[in-house]
């Protein structure tokens, strides 16, 4: 418990205090944001705003997590390290994209397929490691079963070991690419993705802590609730790393809210998407991510629908612009209004996800 509290406090203080230092550094390095020429006209004033803020968040998370572990005397775990691996790995993919943008002086960096290839490399490496490193109880960080609020009775190994593990890696890669790109698409307004991800990470703090209290290997668990227990490796450490990331985002949001002094960039949005999906996989709540990351689903879904409709109708559009937050901007909503209302939607979806997680345990 001490490590959890320390992690969120330390990472918050780090990003809150040091983000202005990084803003000055990024301006000196000329790491400024480039704006889509076809975007809302109000966004053109944001050109040159410091970007790659994900660097601050990653450093703040690492600082909060490891220093909290050092002070509390707790050991790091494989599960916690896997979340950080996913976060840093996808952050590097995003950094490459951002760096190419500032170097080329344009709003496009890596090509679409190149970015996906980078995401797949990280996803496959994560997937392979996540089904190894069994602890003394025989638990690996992830499993080959599809999960909702816990593992379902649908193990991908049904097709045999070779095909089953291939299906597991495909499933994991789909989750990683989908979630990281969903966060990337959500990151279009000041503070939108940052605030929504704080809510998602808060959900995983609650889920991880509850799984720790209701662990099948908790000797204090009573007979009455033993059949409801969770077979999750390192649930408390998953809550700690989620708290460290959330803390880094809380401090960063002070400087990222409208009018933003710094943007996440792809460095931040891909890293955050990676962290969220890693937490979903390792807490065995993969399908629950549809609710906890519901805003990402809406944003990505609006782009898919817009593009499909555009092709089918040969040039017609459903939304004025996608992702959907731009649609409401073009309808005349103030940017802050869109952000706050989307935060409310994200919060309601996260509450529904956590509520459903608890109800499954309660009625089990």
Automatic annotation (TrEMBL):
According to UniProt, the name of this protein is: Phospho-N-acetylmuramoyl-pentapeptide-transferase
Which Gene Ontology BP terms does the record give? cell division; cell wall organization; peptidoglycan biosynthetic process; regulation of cell shape
Its pathway is: Cell wall biogenesis; peptidoglycan biosynthesis
Q: What class of enzyme is it?
A: transferase
UniProt xrefs under InterPro entries: Glycosyl_transferase_4 (IPR000715), PNAcMuramoyl-5peptid_Trfase (IPR003524), PNAcMuramoyl-5peptid_Trfase_CS (IPR018480)
Q: Does the keyword Cell membrane apply?
A: yes
Q: According to its UniProt record, where is this protein located?
A: Cell membrane; Membrane
Xref: PANTHER family: PHOSPHO-N-ACETYLMURAMOYL-PENTAPEPTIDE-TRANSFERASE, PHOSPHO-N-ACETYLMURAMOYL-PENTAPEPTIDE-TRANSFERASE HOMOLOG
Q: What does this protein do?
A: Catalyzes the initial step of the lipid cycle reactions in the biosynthesis of the cell wall peptidoglycan: transfers peptidoglycan precursor phospho-MurNAc-pentapeptide from UDP-MurNAc-pentapeptide onto the lipid carrier undecaprenyl phosphate, yielding undecaprenyl-pyrophosphoryl-MurNAc-pentapeptide, known as lipid I.
One short Pfam name that applies is Glycos_transf_4
User: Which cellular component, as a GO term, is one annotated location?
Assistant: plasma membrane
According to the UniProt entry, what is the EC number of this protein? 2.7.8.13
The positions annotated for binding Mg(2+) are: 184, 266
Name of the coding gene: mraY
Q: Which reaction does it catalyse?
A: UDP-N-acetyl-alpha-D-muramoyl-L-alanyl-gamma-D-glutamyl-meso-2,6-diaminopimeloyl-D-alanyl-D-alanine + di-trans,octa-cis-undecaprenyl phosphate = di-trans,octa-cis-undecaprenyl diphospho-N-acetyl-alpha-D-muramoyl-L-alanyl-D-glutamyl-meso-2,6-diaminopimeloyl-D-alanyl-D-alanine + UMP
Q: Provide the alphabetized UniProt keywords.
A: Cell cycle, Cell division, Cell membrane, Cell shape, Cell wall biogenesis/degradation, Magnesium, Membrane, Metal-binding, Peptidoglycan synthesis, Transferase, Transmembrane, Transmembrane helix
Topology within the bilayer: Multi-pass membrane protein
* Similarity comment: family membership: Belongs to the glycosyltransferase 4 family. MraY subfamily.
Taking the first listed entry, what is the main subcellular location of this protein, grouped into a coarse class? membrane
Q: Does the keyword Transmembrane apply?
A: yes
Regions crossing the membrane:
50-68, 75-96, 116-135, 156-179, 191-210, 236-255, 338-359
């Amino acid at each position: 418990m001490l490590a959890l509290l320390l992690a969120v406090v330390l990472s918050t203080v780090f990003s809150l205090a040091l983000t202005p230092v990084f803003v000055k550094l990024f301006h000196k390095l000329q790491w400024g944001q480039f704006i889509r020429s076809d975007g809302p006209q109000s966004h053109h004033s944001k050109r040159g705003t410091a970007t790659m803020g994900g660097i601050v968040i990653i450093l703040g998370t690492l600082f909060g997590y490891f220093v909290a572990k050092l002070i509390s005397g707790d050991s790091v775990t494989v599960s916690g390290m896997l979340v950080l691996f996913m976060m840093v790995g996808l952050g590097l993919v995003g950094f490459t994209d951002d760096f190419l943008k500032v170097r080329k002086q344009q709003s496009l960096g890596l090509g679409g397929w190149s970015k996906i290839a980078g995401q797949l490399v990280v996803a496959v490496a994560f997937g392979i490691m996540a089904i190894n490193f069994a602890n003394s109880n025989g638990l690996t960080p992830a499993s080959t079963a599809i999960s909702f609020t816990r593992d379902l009775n649908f193990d991908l190994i049904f097709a045999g070991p070779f095909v089953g593990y291939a299906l597991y890696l495909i499933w994991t890669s789909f989750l990683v690419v989908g979630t990281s790109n969903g966060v990337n698409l959500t990151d279009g307004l000041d503070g939108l993705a940052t605030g929504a991800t704080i809510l998602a990470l808060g959900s995983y703090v609650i889920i991880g802590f509850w799984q720790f209290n209701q662990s099948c290997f908790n000797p204090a668990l009573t007979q009455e609730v033993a059949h409801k227990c969770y077979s999750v490796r390192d649930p408390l450490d998953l809550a700690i790393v989620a708290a460290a990331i959330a803390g880094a985002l809380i401090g960063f949001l002070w400087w990222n809210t409208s009018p933003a002094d710094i943007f996440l960039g792809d460095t931040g949005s891909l890293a955050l998407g990676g962290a969220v999906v890693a937490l979903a996989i390792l807490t065995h709540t993969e399908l629950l991510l549809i609710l906890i990351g519901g805003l990402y689903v809406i944003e990505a879904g609006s782009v898919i629908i817009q593009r499909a409709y555009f092709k089918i109708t040969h040039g017609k559009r459903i939304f004025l612009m996608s992702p959907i937050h731009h649609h409401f901007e073009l309808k005349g909503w103030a940017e802050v209004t869109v952000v706050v209302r989307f935060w409310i939607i994200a919060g309601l979806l996260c509450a529904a996800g956590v509520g459903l997680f608890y109800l499954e345990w309660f009625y089990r």
